[in-house]
């Protein structure tokens, strides 16, 4: 019952917080290692291109990675007040299928998930639409800023 009440309250609060601002991916040419807060289960610090962009090296073979609310991209950071920043750091690292600069906008929050880092054991995912020049449609990505996981990119 507590989870249902929490989900209802969180859905009302989050449904009003959608940002329709488009952000262009600005990938700098310099590469530097910037420490990012990580959970103990991630043994090494995340490598970054700059303070606004994660360096993504691994390609996920899982077809649902990031494209399903059941398998969101876990950027973490809420524990260090960097959750939204970590979401942008991940999105800034993306490129189109031929290296095109991407644009993204936040649709809002959705999809309650269990999380030991969330409120009363629950958290909400964020939805982003991603597109690039020449794309015929946008891609919907699910991101979890409450929990940490391996960061991968998905070829689609």
What does this protein look like?
This protein has one domain. 15% of the residues lie in helices and 28% in strands. The chain has 2 helices and 7 strands; from the N terminus they run H-E-E-E-E-H-E-E-E. The strands form 2 sheets. It has a 5-stranded mixed beta sheet, sandwiched between helices. The longest helix has 14 residues, at 2-15. The N and C termini lie far apart (39 Å). The relative contact order is 0.24.
What order do the helices and strands come in, and which of them pair?
Blueprint: H1 2-15, E1 23-24, E2 48-50, E3 53-54, E4 73-74, H2 83-92, E5 102-119, E6 122-132, E7 139-144
Parallel strand pairs: 4-7
Antiparallel strand pairs: 1-5, 2-3, 5-6, 6-7
Could you give the count of β-strands?
A: 7
Shape: globular
**Can you tell me the residue ranges where pLDDT is under 50 for at least 5 consecutive residues?**
1-44
Radius of gyration, Cα only, in angstroms? 15 Å
Oligomeric status of the shown chains?
Answer: single chain
Whole-number count of domains: 1
Largest sheet: 5 strands, mixed
**Major sheet: order of its strands?**
1-5-6-7-4
What proportion of the residues form beta strands (DSSP E)? Answer: 25-35%
Average pLDDT score = 78
SSE ordering: HEEEEHEEE
Helical content stands at 10-25%
Query: Termini distance?
Result: 39 Å
Class from helix and strand fractions: alpha+beta
Q: Please tally the helical runs, counting DSSP H or I stretches of 4 or more residues.
A: 2
């Amino acid at each position: 019952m507590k989870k249902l009440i929490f989900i209802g309250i969180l859905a009302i609060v989050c449904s009003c917080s959608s940002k329709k601002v488009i952000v262009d991916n600005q990938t700098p040419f310099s590469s530097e290692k910037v420490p990012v807060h990580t959970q103990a289960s991630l043994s090494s610090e995340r490598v970054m291109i700059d303070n606004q962009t994660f360096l993504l090296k691994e390609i996920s073979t899982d077809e649902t990675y990031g494209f399903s609310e059941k398998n969101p991209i876990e950027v973490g950071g809420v524990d260090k007040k960097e959750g939204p920043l970590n979401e942008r750091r991940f999105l800034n690292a993306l490129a189109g299928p031929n290296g095109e600069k991407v644009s993204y906008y936040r649709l809002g929050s959705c999809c309650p998930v269990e999380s030991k880092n969330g409120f009363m054991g629950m958290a909400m995912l964020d939805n982003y639409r991603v597109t690039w020049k020449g794309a015929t449609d946008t891609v919907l990505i699910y991101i979890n800023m409450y929990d940490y996981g391996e960061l991968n990119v998905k070829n689609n």
